[in-house]
């Protein structure tokens, strides 16, 4: 990695150590709780063309409703509310890990069924924020994102693919686990890895952080909380997911990530030890293009698609921050009107989850 917004290995290693350690502080913003699904779909993938054919996307092009056909780049955000009475623990064991608390093996392939439920009397605490959750057995931070064995693909050698897979995970860490980003700061390290010539994504990011809205929502790509309202309960974010890769257009290496992040949170003002969890599942498709054939900068990625499904992140929320609900919030607002979903179920694809959702209703989570 040498130029074009790239970051040295030393800088990344220092950053990843800090992100892995997490932070006891976290997430600023006003509160918003209502019910609605917010999604953003882009018709134009904004994928840079070859050197001789590149041109910026036409800003006059409209957006297709919900799922476009074919290989169009898409961005979607589904927010799921909590079901009152269903947020107690689901697993036995003092730490909520289920039985002997043995950590799960890495997820190298899609599971065939959701995690089983158990005793509903294990509630999370500040000391054990994942108690009662399948995430109690998940890995911490970047360790929960499985990387496959590298092989020569497209324009890259085996060693280059291995490096690309690591950099792809670095992007996920910078966007979803960086303690500063979780506190609402700008995701500078993640943004530095985005192809500066991908005009539609650059415009989206600029608008999302200048004036968040449903159309330009930073939560589509980044996990952020309002530090004036909530903070992380402890130093750990649990993760589970995997990265795969394939050859793309013009010999590019396309990297697909499907990862679920579990954020345990407490109120920022203190005086309460109640723990609420926000669960975010993201699927991101990244293209690492050959700079000799595509207009890009070495060491940067082109986003082909990005989709999110958030549980307990706030319905009808266009603040630019996830807004978790606590017990008294749920008493005021009730549950969502949409279909029931299990946020820990990774046996179904994210596409299937999003297709199930009603655009005008907030879904109901069966557990957090």
Note poorly predicted spans: 1-5, 22-72, 84-100
Largest sheet properties: 10 strands, mixed
- Structural class by secondary-structure content: alpha/beta
Strand content: 15-25%
Shape: globular
Our count of domains comes out at 1
Count of strand segments: 10
Average predicted confidence as pLDDT: 79
Order of H and E elements: HEEEHHHHEEEEEHEHE
What distance separates the N and C termini? 40 Å
Characteristic key phrases:
368 residues; alpha/beta; ten-stranded mixed β-sheet; 7 helices; 10 strands; globular; disordered N terminus
Task: Report a brief summary of the structure.
This protein is of the alpha/beta class and 368 residues long.
Structure description:
The protein is α/β, with parallel strands linked by helices and 368 residues long. It has one domain (9-48, 70-102, 112-365). The chain has helices at 9-21, 158-176, 179-182, 188-191, 199-210, 327-333, 350-356; strands at residues 75-82, 139-140, 145-146, 230-232, 238-247, 253-267, 276-288, 302-311, 340-341, 363-365. Strands 1, 2, 3, 4, 5, 6, 7, 8, 9 and 10 form a 10-stranded mixed sheet that branches. It starts with 8 loop residues before the first helix and ends with a strand. Mean pLDDT is 79; it is low at 1-5, 22-72 and 84-100.
């Amino acid at each position: 990695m040498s130029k074009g917004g790239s970051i040295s290995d030393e800088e990344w290693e220092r950053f990843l150590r800090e992100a892995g350690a997490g932070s006891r502080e976290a997430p600023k913003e006003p509160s918003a709780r209502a019910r609605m699904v917010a999604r953003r779909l882009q018709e134009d993938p904004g994928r840079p063309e070859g050197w001789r054919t590149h041109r910026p996307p036409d800003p006059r092009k409209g957006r297709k409703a919900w799922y476009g056909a074919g290989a169009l780049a898409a961005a979607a955000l589904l927010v799921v509310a909590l079901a009152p009475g269903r947020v107690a623990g689901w697993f036995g064991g003092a730490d909520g890990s289920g039985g002997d608390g043995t950590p799960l093996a890495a997820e190298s392939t899609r599971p065939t069924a959701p995690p089983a439920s158990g005793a509903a009397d294990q509630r999370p605490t500040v000391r054990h924020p994942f108690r009662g959750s399948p995430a109690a057995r998940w890995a911490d931070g970047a360790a929960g994102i499985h990387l496959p064995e590298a092989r020569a693909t497209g324009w890259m050698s085996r060693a280059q693919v291995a490096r690309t897979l690591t950099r792809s995970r670095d992007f996920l860490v910078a966007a979803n686990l960086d303690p500063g980003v979780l506190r609402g700061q700008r995701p500078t390290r993640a943004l530095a890895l985005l192809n500066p010539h991908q005009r539609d994504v650059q415009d989206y990011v600029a608008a999302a952080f200048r004036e968040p809205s449903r159309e330009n929502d930073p939560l589509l790509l980044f996990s952020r909380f309002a530090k004036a309202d909530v903070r992380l309960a402890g130093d750990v974010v649990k993760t589970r997911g995997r990265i795969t890769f394939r050859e793309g257009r013009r010999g590019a290496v396309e990297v697909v990530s499907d990862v679920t992040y579990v954020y345990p949170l407490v109120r920022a003002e203190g005086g309460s030890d109640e723990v609420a969890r926000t669960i975010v599942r993201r699927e991101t498709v990244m293209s690492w293009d050959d700079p000799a054939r595509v207009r890009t900068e070495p060491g940067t990625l082109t986003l082909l698609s990005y989709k999110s499904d958030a549980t307990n992140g706030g319905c009808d929320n266009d603040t630019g921050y996830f807004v978790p609900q606590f017990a008294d919030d749920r008493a005021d607002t009730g549950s969502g009107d949409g279909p029931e979903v299990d946020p820990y179920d990774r046996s179904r694809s994210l596409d299937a989850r999003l297709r199930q959702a009603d655009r005008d209703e907030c879904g109901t989570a069966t557990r957090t």
